[in-house]
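Quick start: what a row looks like.
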Amino acid sequence: MINIRTKDGYLLSANMYLASASIPKNKVLIINSATAVSKTLYHHYATLMSKKGYNVITYDYRGIADSRPKRLRGFKTTFLEWGQHDFSAIIDYAKITFVDDKIIVLGHSIGGTIIGMTEKNKDISGIITIGAQTAYYKDWSKKHKTKIYIIWHMILPMITTVVGYFPGKRLRMLEDVPKGVIKQWHSRRHHENMKTQLETKGVQFFYHTCTAKLLTLGIEDDPIGTEIAIKRIHDFFEQSDKKLEMIKLADVPTQKIGHFGFFSRKFKDTLWVKTLDWFDSI
């Protein structure tokens, strides 16, 4: 485990997986986590990619898992800072540490969304997003929409207001999450265009400056990363050579993947190889 300092002075916890010396690809893969997820979720995937010749960096955003402060109540951050400061710092670290490597990124959920929040995305050569969306509830699957809305936009904000942060670990719902992230995500529920909503508040985005090749992946049974939901982020990347693809369960084959299942080791010879082949082509 290593620590990477952001320009505003915050220390992020990260793991580095060095490429197999026998098959170096001269590429460094940055894995951007989902919102309430520790970098450990991506350990086995990162290990496989390092064995296939990639240098890999996984990290926790400020306020999450190993990058959280001792006291989360009163800690202020938003997912904008995850993109503007945290992801930017990881790109800088990758450029300095792996000077001759192309930078590629795998962004899971919010990890795909924040790519457009830093001007440093111009240094990226290839991007795969998985289930990247904006929390606009009308995009979610009809079958799960009401349940998820109640959890995300009623229960989570209510508990967060009382506790001062969302106690995900105590409730066995992934990691604890800072109040500002929950509040900002909750504010997204009625706005179909995230850029328009936040730009009116003075936020600057950089999706339009990104020229990296892009593969946007959705999963058939992902209740929040539906095709219409992931297309919203996909469309922001105006200058990218891009493709959007929905993964069908029957094509894997499997009975379930969902929003988090992609990184299960049972998919190492199917879904993981799919991303490996794509990154190899960059």
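That is the whole record. The first helix runs from residue 43 to 51. Residues 2-134+205-280 form a domain with the Rossmann fold fold (CATH 3.40.50.1820).
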